[in-house]
Structure formats: C-alpha cells, structure tokens
Write a structure and sequence with these properties.
alpha+beta; Glutaredoxin; Glutathione S-transferase Yfyf (Class Pi), Chain A, domain 2; four-stranded mixed sheet; 8 helices; 9% strand; globular
Length: 235
C-alpha cells in the first residue's frame, strides 16, 4: 500500500460537498475499484493554477506520491499499470475496446442529451467566482444563453432516455457492460450519469429501465460509496 492516499482534484460546488464532474466520477469509481484510498481536493473552474503547470488545466488530476496524472482515461491506465495486483479496470484488449466505444458513444450521444438537463443546475451550484467563466465558455460552446438551454424538461428527459436505448438493449442481457461484475467501461457511463444525479432536483434517468437498474446497482458498489455521496437533494 502507498504511504499516503492518492489526492484527487475533484470538481465541487460552492459548498464543497457536491462532487459532480462526470470525468472525476469515472476516476472516483476507478480508485474505489482498485481499493485505493484517496482524498478529494475540492476544485473549482477558475483554479487552474492549482493543477500541474504543464497540464491541460482541467480535472480530474491525481497526485500519487511524486506523480501527477490528468485525464480520466490516462488515470485508469496508470492505475492498472501501477497497481497490477489489484482488480483490473481494463483486463485485456476487449475491455479496452469496450471502454473506448463507451467513451465515444457517451461523447457523441449521451452528453448532448444531458446538457440542457444538467448545465443550468451546475450554474446555480458553483461559486460566484466561477460564474463569468462558466457562462462565457458554455454559451460560446452551446450557441445560446444558459437561460434558453432548457425549455421542456419532459421532452429533455425523453430525449435522454432515447439516447440511452443502446445501453438499455445491452444491459437487458447482462448486469454490467463487463458481464457479471463492473469494470472501467461501466464507470464511463456511470460517471456520465452521476453528473445529473448530483446536480438535478430530480434524477432524469428512468430507474425502472435496464440502465436505471444497472445505475442503482452501481450506486451500492464499493460499500455504497456513490449512493452516500451528497447530492443537491441532500445538502
């Protein structure tokens, strides 16, 4: 075991109790999967000076003794390489291919469906010092004011659950994408869906669907780690 826990720069709300980054959640679950103790360091959008000088200025970033590693996918690879005696996140080429597919699919299909649902709620939760940066960067990327992003919550929830149709089809045949137990490929979509789960007054995922049942199982993994993490509904 390392002499000290890994430190994780972890995107947080103004209260520093709600951790909502989908990419940080991928790393959080990866660390728990490895049985690796870690300390979350609450981080905000305008605190890039706290990260590695030669890094990408975004989280997650971990410090493991004298090493700094960024990007959730690179962190997962590092954890498998550094700690091969612990449960593998990606055991073989099939697992790495499955992970790459889920990363690409989430980026192209799931994130676009989630933005109108989650982004306005993130703005309400972040510290005031981050407001200008968040508004400017998101409005530039999305091409509209934040106030116009969400227009029909029922339609947006339906669009999300339509986007999740491939995952529902897959999870109707197995409890996890990796089969009988989760691996890093599962944490890709799980982390993505922890974003709205953490910040929205109501979880938009249909919990009666195969994805919802899978999500519920993962909330209870690692001693209920994700289920016991504060959300906007419990702070």
């Amino acid at each position: 075991m390392p002499n000290s826990p890994i430190q994780l720069f972890d995107l947080a709300d103004a209260s520093q109790k709600i951790f909502f980054s989908p990419f940080c959640w991928r790393t959080r679950m990866a660390l728990k999967h490895k049985g690796q103790a870690f300390e979350s360091l609450p981080w905000h959008f305008t605190e890039s000076d706290r990260l590695a000088p030669d890094g990408a200025k975004k989280v997650p970033e971990i410090i493991d003794q004298d090493r700094r590693i960024g990007e959730s996918s690179d962190i997962a690879l590092y954890l498998d390489e550094k700690y091969p005696d612990r449960p593998a996140l990606m055991a073989d080429s099939a697992a790495r291919a499955r992970t790459a597919f889920l990363e690409s699919w989430c980026a192209s299909a799931v994130f676009p469906a989630l933005r109108p649902i989650a982004v306005p709620h993130v703005f309400k939760l972040i510290p005031e010092k981050d407001h200008a940066y968040f508004r400017e960067s998101r409005e530039k990327a999305l091409g509209m004011p934040l106030e116009e992003l969400s227009k029909d919550t029922a339609a947006e929830k339906m669009a999300l659950n339509n986007a999740l149709a491939p995952a529902n089809a897959a999870l109707a045949h197995a409890p996890y994408f990796a089969g009988d137990a989760p691996d890093y490929s599962d944490y890709i979509l799980f982390g993505t869906l922890m974003w709205p789960y953490a910040v929205c007054p109501e979880n938009p995922v249909d919990m009666a669907s195969p994805v919802g049942q899978w999500f519920d199982r993962l909330l209870d993994h690692h001693g209920g780690f994700a289920r016991n993490t504060p959300t906007v509904r419990a702070v």
